[in-house]
Amino acid sequence: MSEQKNGRAAFLPVGMGAGIAIGVALGLALDNLALGIALGVAIGGGMGVAGMGLAGAKRDGQSGGEGAAPHVDGGRDRADDSSDGGDAGGADGGS
User: Fold this and answer.
1) Do the Cβ atoms of 12 and 45 come closer than 8 Å?
2) C-alpha atoms less than 13 angstroms from C-alpha of 22 in its C-beta half-sphere
């Protein structure tokens, strides 16, 4: 159990490290290192959280992520819903 938790928790630091590296490169290219590091932290955090979500989905056998809900039809038949809500029966005022 602790091995799964440790493997899943490793995505955030790896994502943060990769994001900061990307941010430093971006900051140096744009001559604004502080902005690059800030963007790198944001990008890395997103990468880490996305990695944790994908790892949880693969572990649980889901394909749509942890929060994916199954499709529910609601029991309505599409063939019966042919009405457009108006009077389409030819009532055109007597002409």
Assistant:
1) yes
2) 15
